């Protein structure tokens, strides 16, 4: 069965392997293939990779002695992994049950299999899940897991918070820009996948979220990753919090792509004299950056606005792109 692989020259293979492993995207269940000076590194989620990686599909062998779900089921099922949870998107309950049994009976380190039961909904950005199967000896609630990416670990409950492992490389792209001593605000912080790496690079970070469960996980994850002294977690609407940090931020993350424009006035309040804004948006492919850029320029009265980067994060839907504008605001 063909699997998604990152294709790289052999001399770049080890560096790329380390990067994919750190992001939690290296498919440990399949072997790396060498063919005529080129390495093919199997990955778990091709959609999570940025444009810098060349993705191809090819047949790669499983690791010897490891029984996979495909070995048990006789076909290669489609699923995502988040920590030790396998996530399905199946309309047929009987098929979902068969796949779940195959996954749990395989050698994969999976403790539970869930099926999407709704789209992301509401102000708290959560979805419903059907628990299809779970191991008898699960040590945590079925929907709680620990996700690891780029050397950090995040405890979270998928039934209570929103989290997308597909944004790992994008989060890393942004947080690698952070310098020690910065003051940063994550306006929609969730369980901390932007806030915690920024703090680890020496920034003082304020993370705000409307979801009380997400804020509790943010605090716990700051402790787990040794940055609790540099992360302030606030439960509430960032528009109500902004006045308390008027002019404070050197860097702002706005990862709420469907409605970030509704919060630009708060971002401008938070921004200091020289501030970098990471603004996420979802727009039609014909003009993916224009609406966001126009909204920022309209809101940022009193600032010079320089768009440093126009970056496509991933394809979101047919003819729609998830994009990021890295914008420098200078008063």
TrEMBL record:
Pfam families: TRM5-TYW2_MTfase, Trm5_N. InterPro entries: MeTrfase_TRM5/TYW2 (IPR030382), SAM-dependent_MTases_sf (IPR029063), TRM5-TYW2-like_MTfase (IPR056743), Trm5a/b_N (IPR040601). Keywords: Cytoplasm, Methyltransferase, S-adenosyl-L-methionine, Transferase, tRNA processing. It comes from the Archaea. One of its GO terms (biological process) is tRNA N1-guanine methylation. SUPFAM superfamilies: S-adenosyl-L-methionine-dependent methyltransferases (SSF53335). One of its GO terms (molecular function) is tRNA methyltransferase activity. GO terms for cellular component: cytoplasm. Residues 79-331 form the SAM-dependent methyltransferase TRM5/TYW2-type domain. This is tRNA (Guanine37-N1)-methyltransferase.
């Amino acid at each position: 069965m063909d699997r998604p692989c990152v294709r790289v020259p052999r001399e770049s293979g080890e560096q790329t392997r380390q990067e994919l492993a750190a992001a939690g995207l290296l498919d440990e269940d399949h072997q790396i293939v060498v063919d005529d000076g080129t390495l093919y590194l199997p990955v778990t989620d091709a959609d999570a990779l940025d444009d810098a990686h060349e993705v191809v599909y090819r047949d790669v062998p499983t690791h010897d002695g490891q029984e996979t779900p495909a070995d048990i089921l006789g076909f290669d099922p489609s699923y995502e992994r988040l920590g030790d949870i396998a996530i399905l998107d199946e309309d047929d309950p009987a098929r979902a049950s068969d796949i779940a049994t195959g996954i749990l009976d395989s050698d994969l380190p999976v403790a539970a299999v869930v099926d999407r039961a709704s789209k992301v909904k509401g102000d708290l950005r959560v979805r419903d899940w059907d628990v299809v199967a779970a191991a008898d000896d699960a040590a945590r609630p079925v929907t709680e897991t620990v996700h690891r990416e780029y050397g950090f670990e995040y405890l979270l409950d998928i039934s209570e918070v929103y989290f997308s492992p597909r944004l790992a490389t994008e989060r890393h792209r942004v947080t690698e820009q952070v310098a020690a001593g910065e003051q940063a605000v994550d306006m929609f912080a969730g369980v901390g996948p932007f806030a915690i790496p920024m703090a680890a690079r020496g920034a003082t970070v304020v993370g705000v979220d409307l979801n009380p469960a997400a804020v509790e996980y943010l605090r716990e994850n700051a402790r787990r990753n040794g940055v609790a002294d540099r992360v302030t977690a606030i439960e509430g609407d960032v528009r109500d919090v902004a006045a308390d940090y008027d002019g404070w931020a050197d860097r702002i993350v706005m990862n709420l792509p469907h409605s970030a424009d509704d919060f630009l006035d708060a971002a401008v309040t938070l921004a200091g004299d020289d501030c970098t804004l990471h603004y996420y948006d979802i727009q039609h492919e014909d003009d993916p950056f224009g609406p966001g850029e126009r909204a920022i320029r309209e809101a940022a009265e009193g600032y010079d606005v320089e768009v440093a980067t126009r970056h496509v994060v991933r394809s979101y839907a047919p003819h729609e792109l998830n994009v990021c504008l890295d914008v420098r605001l200078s008063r």
